[in-house]
Specification:
The structure is a single chain. The chain is mainly alpha-helical. The protein has 11 helices and 4 strands. Strands 1-4-2-3 form a 4-stranded antiparallel β-sheet. The longest helix has about 35 residues.
Length: about 260
């Protein structure tokens, strides 16, 4: 179990709104790979508990954050065991697996996490692995922001959201991530897509472009590809809109108004 969450935190976890909101805020930034921004986002006396969570616990106690707040696997034995269990549940190259059972396992022996600590560990795990993780909902690939809807109230509600919405994960080998990204870019450029599939691909690629941990050259190539495809998509939408208007005008003898 987490070795440093003391009595004050365990009591607060039963109903302390300040702890719950601090955990949610920290977890949100970890999930998005923005751990290095935590100090600049937690300023002022109202953010004291948030600073306590990521400094005294995640950085010093758990050793899940380096001195510059970069994520790393925790070196504390009990936490590392749980981290490794997530690695095993979502091994690189495996099929997509439901996330709910893997998270619920953290609440039971031998791990013994509560909802808050389990969420923080999972968020750190996701943030650390970054673009190698693919997320699906009900069997359909989706973007990382799918987690946001579960981060509105508490860690416990996040667990319920994951279960209810059939969120699943799969993980690429890190060496395969760039190949997968380039394949998505190639798919956008060379294959026809309906609008829904195209938007889904764009969302995934925007996640790569926004990922500060990704290779800068790859991020720039992805950004260029997104902009190019977005221009083509906008042109196609304009064409469809103009064609619809012309068709309607011809049917109503109002073609002159379009000329």
């Amino acid at each position: 179990r987490p070795p440093v969450f003391d009595t004050r935190y365990r009591a607060a976890a039963q109903g302390g709104g300040k702890l719950k909101s601090s955990v949610i805020k920290v977890a949100t930034h970890l999930l998005r790979g923005r751990s290095r921004r935590l100090p600049e986002l937690a300023v002022g006396p109202e953010s004291a508990m948030m600073r306590d969570v990521f400094n005294n616990y995640l950085r010093i106690g758990w050793r899940m954050l380096q001195a510059d707040y970069t994520l790393q696997p925790p070196s504390v034995a009990g936490l590392r065991h749980a981290w490794d269990d997530l690695d095993k549940a979502f091994a690189p190259g495996g099929n997509a697996s439901r996330l709910g059972p893997a998270l619920m396992k953290l609440l039971s022996p031998p791990f013994g996490f509560d909802y808050n600590t389990a969420l923080l560990l999972f968020a750190g795990w996701i943030g650390y692995h970054g673009g190698s993780v693919r997320i699906s909902q009900g069997g359909r690939l989706t973007k990382p922001e799918v987690f946001d809807a579960g981060l509105t109230k508490s860690a416990k509600e996040f667990f319920k959201y994951i279960q209810d919405n059939r969120i699943a994960l799969e993980r690429h080998d890190p060496s395969e991530t760039e190949r997968v990204v380039r394949a998505m870019l190639d798919s956008l450029r060379t294959r026809p897509h309906d609008q829904s599939d195209a938007l889904n691909l764009l969302d995934q690629l925007r996640g790569v472009a926004d990922d500060e941990r990704a290779d800068p050259r790859l991020r720039q190539e992805v950004t260029n590809g997104i902009e190019q495809f977005q221009r083509a998509l906008d042109a196609a939408r304009k064409y469809d809109k103009d064609a619809t208007a012309i068709d309607k005008a011809m049917k109503t003898d109002d073609l002159r108004g379009l000329l």
